[in-house]
Automatic annotation (TrEMBL):
Domain Phosphoadenosine phosphosulphate reductase per the UniProt entry, residue ranges: 49-217
Active site: C238
The protein's name in its UniProt record: Adenosine 5'-phosphosulfate reductase
This protein's record includes keyword Cell cycle: no
Function: Catalyzes the formation of sulfite from adenosine 5'-phosphosulfate (APS) using thioredoxin as an electron donor.
Gene3D superfamilies: HUPs
Gene Ontology biological-process annotations: hydrogen sulfide biosynthetic process; sulfate assimilation, phosphoadenylyl sulfate reduction by phosphoadenylyl-sulfate reductase (thioredoxin)
Keywords: Cytoplasm, Iron, Iron-sulfur, Metal-binding, Oxidoreductase
Naturally occurring in which organism (per UniProt): Devosia litorisediminis
Pathway assignment: Sulfur metabolism; hydrogen sulfide biosynthesis; sulfite from sulfate
Length: 424
């Protein structure tokens, strides 16, 4: 690898510089993708531009543009250590096919990995932090060497990217170039066909957007192409992109997007919901509906991966009494504020069956209910109601001091004499 460049020192971030970016977008808004990249590489940032590529399902399009403009442009690939083997092979395929001569792999800091992810399973419990140490941190010192860098992002991919321009000014006064911003999914596929570009080996198997192996799944017909990224999690970005409109948060504020409250904080949720594409033999970190588990019990018991159980009103927790130890988490559905059947399920789990793993409440979870849920054994909550989220963070939930229906042996129902209470 060539010697690292000195860190780029950007100009002062002021209104004139921001207006310059607006002018660039106005001038080149209608220009085709290769024209945008050529303009950026030869006139806007000559000798001071790098390309960042995931070598995923659509990467061949951007890299084909690079090969047309200048195959010696520096291309950086984040080798997280979690990629599919097929992706690593694809890197070599595209380098050879396109004649790219300046491709570099960026690896995470080994000490960071050893400290924060020694077992290699951080993605299961905190994918934001996993992305941070394997992508954001390693890339930062690279991008600091350049005045700008090129991405393959497109407007259609997520709602946050829906207003993505060709040129954007980042918070650290660098220019991010998005030549494919206006490409649709159909445009990408047509471009690959017209230029006979090698397809990622996993694309034909249903992987339409490809990142790290543990956090990428097959996309069903009709699903959004990025639906297979961090499936089941409230997560759309790995953290290396900061949109000019501020819609994509930095990893430090990513917890605001989490919905799982546990151990006194909102955190990344390793579990996902069961879907039609889920398979009993291979599902992992999935809450399986109780009737589905009963119907496929043998396959689920043979499955070596962590699983959860979803219990909805009307489900009989008694039907899986013998298998409760199989589940790392049990999600009890509270479909409405007035439906109290979930409380009975939680009490059965803790008092009759002595279930000691995670019991989470999902559905219509509001702040007035939470103290009652906790009394019954719920120790995790999935919360989307903003006032309730605020109440949890600020520790101002209502208190319950009078009990008509006591839980366990410590609570005393109102109007009775404790010394006459019978302990069963």
């Amino acid at each position: 690898m060539a010697q690292p460049k000195a860190a780029h020192v950007p100009a002062v971030h002021d209104k004139l510089r921001a207006l310059g970016i607006l002018a660039l977008n106005g001038m080149f808004d209608e220009m085709d993708a290769v024209g945008v990249l050529r303009q950026a590489a030869t006139d806007v940032l000559p000798g001071d531009l790098a390309i960042v590529s995931s070598f995923g399902a659509d990467s061949a399009v951007l890299l084909h543009l690079v090969a047309q403009v200048d195959p010696s442009l520096p291309v950086y690939f984040l080798e997280t250590g979690k990629h599919f083997v097929e992706t690593l092979d694809y890197v070599e395929t595209l380098k050879k096919h396109l004649g790219l001569i300046n491709v570099h792999a960026i690896h995470p800091n080994s000490e960071d990995v050893k400290r924060f992810d020694p077992a290699g399973t951080l993605w299961e419990t905190d994918p934001d932090s996993c992305c941070h140490i394997r992508k954001t941190e390693p890339l930062e010192p690279i991008t600091e060497q350049y005045a700008g860098w090129v991405t393959g992002r497109k407007r259609f991919q997520t709602k946050e990217r829906g207003v993505l321009p060709h040129f954007e000014l980042t918070s650290d006064d660098r220019i991010k170039v998005n030549p494919l911003a206006y490409f649709s999914d159909a445009d990408v596929n047509q471009y690959k066909i017209e230029h006979a570009l090698p397809e990622h080996p996993l694309f034909a198997k249903g992987y339409k957007s490809i990142g790290c192996a543990p956090c990428t799944s097959v996309v069903a017909e009709g699903e959004d192409p990025r639906a297979g990224r961090w499936r089941g999690l409230n997560k759309q970005e790995c953290g290396i992109h900061f949109d000019f409109n501020g819609a994509i948060a930095s990893p430090m504020t990513a917890s605001k997007r989490h919905t799982l409250w546990k151990d006194g904080a909102f955190m990344a949720d390793p579990f996902r919901a069961w879907s039609e594409e889920s398979d009993a033999a291979t599902a992992s970190y999935t809450h399986v509906p109780l009737p589905v588990f009963v119907a496929n019990r043998d396959a689920f018991l043979a499955n070596p991966h962590p699983l959860g159980l979803q219990v909805s009103p009307g489900d009989r927790i008694e039907d899986v009494e013998a298998d409760l130890g199989r589940f790392a988490s049990i999600a009890i559905t509270f479909p409405a504020f007035t439906d109290g059947r979930g409380y009975s399920t939680a009490r059965l789990l803790t008092e009759r069956y002595q279930y000691a793993n995670e019991i989470r409440a999902v559905g219509d979870v509001l702040q007035d209910q939470i103290p009652l849920m906790r009394r019954c054994g719920v120790n995790a909550l999935v919360v989307t109601h903003e006032p309730t989220r605020d109440a949890l963070v600020e520790n101002r939930l209502p208190e319950v001091g009078i009990f008509y229906q006591p839980v366990g042996t410590a609570e005393v129902p109102v109007g009775t004499r404790p010394f006459l209470r019978r302990v069963s």
